Structures are given as C-alpha cells and as structure tokens.
Amino acid sequence: MDFHNDGSHDAEDYHWMFSEYLWSSASIGKVMEYEAEKTSGFSWGYGALPNCHFWMINVMESSCDFDTLGLTPENSPGAGAFTGHYNRLAHAYEDVKAGGELFVSYGQNWFTTRESYMGLVPGEDDFEVGEDFIETVSELFESLVDSTTVKDDVHYMRQVREDIWNMIVNSPYKSRPLAALPKAYKTAVRAMDVGIMQTEEELATHSVEYLEEHGKCLDHIHPQNSTIPHAGRGAFATRYLPKGTVVSTAPLIHIPDRDILTMYDDSEDGETRDLSKPIGQQLLLNYCWGHPKSSMLLCPYSHGTPFINHDGQDPNVKIQWMENDDRYHNSSWLDEPVSFFDSVWTTKLMFEYVALRDIQEGEEVLVDYGKEWEEAWNEHVKAWNPDENYVSPHELNKDYDLPLKTHEEDASVYTDIFGYHTDTDKKSGEREIHRIRARRPDPNNKNDGFVYDLEVIGSDNFVKRVKDVSRSQMHFYHKPYKADIFREGSFRHEMMISDEMFPNAWRNL
Description:
By secondary structure, the chain is α+β, with helices and mostly antiparallel strands. The protein has helices at residues 25-28, 30-35, 108-112, 115-118, 124-146, 151-169, 176-179, 185-194, 196-203, 208-214, 371-383, 393-398, 407-410; strands at 22-24, 40-42, 59-61, 65-66, 85-86, 90-92, 221-225, 233-237, 246-255, 262-266, 273-281, 289-290, 297-300, 309-310, 317-321, 350-355, 364-367, 417-422, 430-441, 450-457, 463-470, 474-478, 495-496. The chain contains 13 helices and 23 strands.
C-alpha cells in the first residue's frame, strides 16, 4: 500500500488502520506471495478477532486455499471482483476450556514495531523470567511475615508487602519481564500461590453464563458457493433465523480517505508510481461500505459477513448500527467529523445484520448494496468482453491430465504466468521453470498422461535441463500484477450505506 501510494508509514502521511490487522503473505499462502512485488493479507473473521498472548497461544492458523470457482476473464464479468483466497483454518493445538479466550501468535516483531504506543509487550521468555522473579518475591514476603508475631505488626507488614509490589511494577525502568508481572497486588498474591500462567488463564476466561448473556453469535452463517451468477462465494444460514434475528454483528475498520485504495501506473523510471496516472482501485474496495458524499469507507471484518451478496429486490437482511452496547460500538463517533478518525487507531464502530424476514436453514443471506452499486454492476456487465486468450494458472494446477504447451508450440501461453518445478527425489526444493522444451506420453501412465523436459533456473541462477518431469511436479502462478484482480476493467465499487443511516457529520464531499 505504501508503494502504490508513494507514501511511508514512518512519516505517517496517511491513515491506514489495516496495518493492525494484516498478516504476512507467507502465512496466507504462496499464491498471494507471487501476486505483487510486496503483499500482505487481510484475514477477516477469526483471522482478525483473536488477540496475542505469548504464554497462552492455543490456536494455530493454516495457510489458505485458492480457487476462483472457475470464474475467469474468459467466461465471467465477476472475475477479479472477489478474492480467490479462502478457507484459512484455525486449529486448537491444546485443550481450551469453555469460556477461555483464544490466542494466536502475531510474532514478536509485530509488537517491537509498535513500542512507541504499545510499550514493551512480554514474550514467552519474559514470562518465564517473571515467573522466577515472583517466586523470589514470594519468599521475601514470607520471611517478612515469619519475622512478625504481633497482630498490629502483621497488618503493617501486609501493607508493606503491597507497597513493595506497587513500587516494583511501577518502576520507571521498564522491561519486558517487568511487563509480564501482574499489575494488581491481589493478582500478584494469587500468582505467588499458583503461578503467573494460572492467573493469566483465569483473567482470560469468562463463564459460559456470561458469554450467553453478553457474547455475540458468530455461527449463524457460513460460506459456500453463491447461488448468484458471477458472485463467487456467498453466506448461508446454518440454522432457521426468525425475522428480527441479529444474523451477525460486524466490527468495522474505518478508512477516512478512500483515495488510499487508488492504484497508480509506473513512472518513467519504473521505480516509483506516477500519481497523475490512476489505473484502478484495490480489491478491498469491493468489501467496504461507503456513501457518495463522503470519503469515509467502513470495512466489516467479522466471520461470514464479507460473503453476504447483493439483492436489490428481495434482500433478507439489512444493516443497522449496533444498539445499546457501548462495549463494541461508540455511537458518539457518528457525530464526529471524518478528520477525527485520522488519529483513531482502534475500532469501535459496529454493524448489525438483521433478518428482514424468516430465513430458512441453508438459504443464502442477501443484503441490498444500494442502487449506485447495482447500476455500476449492470454497466460493467454490459461493457464486459471475454478474453479468449486468457490462461488460468489455477485451472492448470487443478487438471494434471491437461497437456501443457511447450514454449516452441505457443510461448504466449506463458506471458502472464510462470511455473515452479519441485524435485521431490533430490530434495532440491522449488526451481523456477524457464522453458518447457518437450512433451511426450508418460510410459508409466496408462491414462495418457505426459512427462516434460524443462529448463529450470537453479539456485546459482544458471539454467539447467531437467528431463521426464511429471505434471504433479509443476505448479503455476500468475506473474506479479497479472492476476485477475489487477486486470484493467475488473469491477470495483463499494457497497452503499443509505442516506437515512449515514451520519451527516461524515458528509465531507
């Protein structure tokens, strides 16, 4: 995002709160790594909700799958209008008690780059140091009690212990092990008895009764292939949802200046972007809500809601601002100007998706994106033309029986895609395919499969010849900026918040 907008996070010349929610592309999957020169991934739902506690990490997240459901520039105006990255799974790798908070690892670097406003956040080793320290302090406190027998002196020594503890945790000499210590004296006393780990778990656990009263349901909907042509994936009801049900809540990431999503062409030197030559919008725009009279965009990041598709005639849910719960939604922000959000680095706005009628189990959940969105989509469909020369690397990866053309037969096939060869026998890792030299029937395959002779680029950057490569040893990707989402003319438009719902204070255009 910095590169596309000729900006710098160090200079803080624009507000980009998504930086708090992004994952490295390596943790998302290889397809994303190759899509552009610099990539990162926004993983909504579970990927955006959990916190990190280095001593209580209980969930690991996998890389995701990639599939555009066969919708390509060759056959669909919806190609490039939705993400093909999906199905990033989270696995509990140890038992989690009912009511226990779920924690993932952000990586220590996530915290060290935010020390200016987050302070020193302890890592796993720091908690171990803190555990040893609190045992030493506990022994000291016990010796103080043992040396006192007079009742008044016992009471006095208890106050002395509390004062000592407060002096320790409020020391001006900050460190990560110090940050691992319990701040409250009462919690510290508990930690001296059962350990810091146990006290941290107790603080991070709610009763089931509390969750039933105060929690928000996240499993009313789940994603699967949409029933709407060209829409990609959709959200479907997991159970019967009566009229008026809050189908899902959606915390919102605010983007005060929508121009941040504009992408620009290269300048003449090829090293920077030419801000006078806009070439399109980031795909993220399609997942945001906005208003034609405001620069503000709002992006829901709850489970399932980004999959909710459009129906302008008979939607079965609507969006509304969350009511009567200031823990998640600060209604006073609706009266603040857009400039107020330039210095707000937390989320405290929330949508509710509310059932307009009874929704049956298995029914697709649909919301009205607004007439401006619908008109823009209809115009896009009218103007769309199929690209008959398009080659999908992902379709090639799905069908190993499909014969690959050699570069001599048709080198244009590989204009926008490239491949890797994995030598599983010699364990030499992945090597980029330079050319496909020859194709011939596989003598060991009775199903008319093929083997290939390749030129690959070795670790020393020299081209080497490899013979009799099976199709399963080759995997193809788009070259940077050649994926469907970067193609000129891919559909882009935010979903529209109604005039009645949109705050007057945000109308700055």
